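In the previous lecture we treated proteins in isolation. Real proteins rarely work alone, and many bind small molecules. This record shows how such a complex is specified: first the sequence, then the SMILES for molybdenum atom.
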Amino acid sequence: MLQTELTVEGMALPDETIDDAPPAELISREELQLATRNHGMPLEGLRYPITPVGMHYVLLHYDIPLADATTWTLSIDGRVRRPITLSLDDVRARPAMTIGVTMECAGNGRALMEGRPLNQPWLMEAVATAEWTGTPLSPLLEEAGLDEGTVEIVFTGLDRGIAGETEQMYQRSLSIEEAQQPSVLLVYAMNGQPLQPQHGFPVRLLVPGWYGMASVKWLTRITAVVRPFDGYWQAQGYRLRQLEEEAGTPITRVMPRALMVPPGIPDFPSRRRFVSAGPLTLTGRAWSGWGPIESVEVSADDGASWEPSTLEPPVAPAVWQAWAFEWTARPGEHVLCCRARDAMGNEQPARPSWNLGGYLNNAVQQVPVTVR
Ligand SMILES: Nc1nc2c(c(=O)[nH]1)N[C@H]1C(S)=C(S)[C@@H](COP(=O)(O)O)O[C@H]1N2
Ligand SMILES: [Mo]
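The predicted 3D structure, ligand included, written as tokens:
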């Protein structure tokens, strides 16, 4: 297996960590290696409506490619009548729009699942909101002229690696209908600054409402195809399945989740929360890729009883909503929880349900606090 050739600082990794899923409470060296590269948003970052760029979570499957803005090109090719090649200046010269988007990784919550696969061990922090600036994709597809019979658009990033034992570039596809949504953008700025290398410089795709895997970074090719794309991250990764041999269902839009700003102060290094007795406003944010959030409820007794929070309306379609809850903290041990329901009626489960890839764990957050 290719993975056995991985080394950390020249040290061979012990073989027994390679294939076996670690017990839920233990983290393997390879997971640590992923976790130090792919950082989450510290949950106190939920205080900001727009996440500062350096606090936005990062997920990289391979290496950050070194892209040169002066030689970089984006081609629109495949089953099109008029293939297009654009420079960065060409992309920037096109009609621009800026939208806020809450992005979340489909693996958020993976490390809280029993029997997780070897992959980025997120707890709950793989989410953030940015203001993205770019140009809509749909008019470009129109200009290129999709051939009749085109079923999907494949997006290729510059980053290259091995997945499923096959060497490849990071690629994902969208159906034509999804690719033509007016909010699907080719973005080159994040919070008003050029994209940072780790977020896809010079240009990335942005698919609002979908889990992050659809928003291909370091975009270099957009290809119209007549058969459904079957690359690794489409046909094997990002599918809900119980067995390797089953096709499973593709992961698309973000399921609802509410998270809270960690209350009080943390103990170092356990990070257990300590709160002073008395009235306290709990705050947080909630989001869904299926429409606005309709309610966020809060529990101070580990989910035994729930009360509604005050929820702000959405400021834009794909942006998280702020919630607040007045809590009277009484001395003792408590487990605080929050849960969201969206306009489609999707709710957060109390416990995760298992799947092979460790995806879509939007189980209710539990925050143990000691009140003194
Ligand atoms: N080219 C490329 N695009 C990619 C990825 C990648 O590894 N390579 N990771 C995807 C995943 S799984 C997520 S969650 C988001 C994360 O975007 P961010 O790092 O800007 O937060 O990028 C997506 N786009
Ligand atoms: Mo992701």
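Summary for your notes: The first helix runs from residue 16 to 19. Confidence is low (pLDDT under 50) at residues 1-18.
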